[in-house]
Amino acid sequence: MQQNKRMASVKDDFLHYATNPESELEDTDSDCTIVYDYEESSGEDEEVPPSLKTPRSDYIWSDNSNYDPIIFSFDRSNSGLQVFWIVFDFYLLKKMDQRTCIKFCVKNEIKCADAFRMLTVAYEEATLDQSNVYRWYKMFSEGREDVNDEERAGRPSTSTTDEKINEVEKMILANRQITVREVAEDLNISIGSCHSIFINDLGMRRVATKFRVINGDEAWVYGYDVETKAQSSQWKLPHEPRPKKVPQVRSNVKVLLTVFFDCRGVVYHEFLPQGRTVNKEYYLQVMRNLRQAIRQKRPDLWKNKNWLLHHDNAPAHTSLLVRDFLAKNNTLMMPQQQYSPNLAPCDFFLFPKLKRPMKGRRYATLDEIKTASKEELKKIFKNDFLKCFEDWKKPLAQVYNISWGLL
User: Fold this and answer.
1) b/e string for 306-322 if b means 16 or more Cβ within 10 A?
2) Do residues 65 and 50 make contact, with C-beta atoms less than 8 angstroms apart?
3) Which H/E stretch holds residue 310?
């Protein structure tokens, strides 16, 4: 292809037929092409229309086959939107050319019927319909000069008024999970207008809710528990013998502690009454007490219902009685794999942190054990709970192959 490219429109052929009425109106073998390139062009080339002067890319069309534009080169992003606008510009140019030809016929006193016949030969399927040709012929005959459409204000929007925007905002604030379709149906407006109010007028965006996990489990707390090896270690001089440790055992005085906590701290705890065992009836009451504690201490979680319950697979926890109660109250459960203490925050974080300071100390009564347990629970900082949940995310992602919104 030559460096110096030019624009040759079908208008040239039309003008040839219009100025040479003695020539036969027949199709030629020559290609009618519209070419525009950013390469150097000579001053002899015809000026490129404004509709083509957009820095999209170099493009070439051919209108040989039923005037369907073919894109031969497309250097930048070949997106559907760019292709659409190139095709749109092409047909817009065709329409403007035909109006120019009609205006030419009016100036040269060529009848409208003959003008329409010549347009049909030159533009074939892309020809304007007969009513449009006659309408533009009449307007040019009455003195019109401009071939472009007149600007129209369009129909005023009745969907994006201040009143509608306020109504949409009230509905969203009343129900954050409402859908665009529901709002559109209630206000009798289109989904597109409703979506525009959400995004453009109110500046809202839909985000996924993070679920907060509440972990829970039971553990025995003893009146006396043996110190760990690290706790019982001592300093010694090089010439001194290694100190001997007297074997000791746990005390028979003990109490069962049930604790539930989230990333902000302890939500609920209770001690097993003396003489009772952890069965399905007892744990059902624990679940009732836990729900009441969430309502009081975590009102945001209770209102939005964006919390999960996580406990192990103990028989009392998985009994039909407890599962029916949780299902009836729409309590979501988080699964727990068996024999996986690294997936249970109570096992790898809470109970070791609670019991470690109490090891080696002696508590004579159950009340003393309970009091000491409560004090140790209060000593665990909020940052410790946050770190626990952050550490928990990694093994969860490895096991379940998902990213949990735990906080």
Assistant:
1) ebbbbbbeeebbebeeb
2) no
3) strand 307-310
Distance CA 376, CA 95 (A): 84
Alpha-carbon span 391 to 76, nearest angstrom: 46
Residue 93 to residue 49: CA distance in whole angstroms? 8
Distance CA 256, CA 262 (A): 20
Higher-pLDDT residue of 89 and 145 is 145
To which residue do tokens 């009449």 refer? 138
3-class SS of residue 215: strand
- CA dihedral over 139, 145, 147, 148, signed as positive or negative: negative
Q: Which helix (H) or strand (E) holds 332?
A: strand 332-333
Instruction: Look at residues 39, 29, 37, 40 and name the one whose alpha carbon lies nearest to residue 7.
Output: 37
Contact 199, 328 (CB under 8 A): no
DSSP result, 72-105 = ----S---HHHHHHHHHHHHHHHHHHHHHHHHHH
Residue 100 · residue 147 · CB < 8 Å: yes
Which of 404, 369, 390, 385 is CA-nearest to residue 267? 385
Average pLDDT for residues 278-291, to the nearest whole number?
96
Could you tell me if 102 and 140 are in contact, meaning their C-beta atoms sit under 8 angstroms apart?
Answer: yes
Q: How many residues does the chain have?
A: 407
pLDDT in tens, 342-385: 788 999 999 999 999 999 899 999 999 999 999 999 999 999 99
Q: Give the span between the Cα atoms of 271 and 303, in whole angstroms.
A: 28
| 148, 93 Cβ separation under 8 angstroms | no
How far the first Cα of the chain sits from its last, in Å, is 63
Written as one string, the DSSP assignment of 219-260 is: EEEESB-PPPTTTT-----TTSPPPP-------S-EEEEEEE
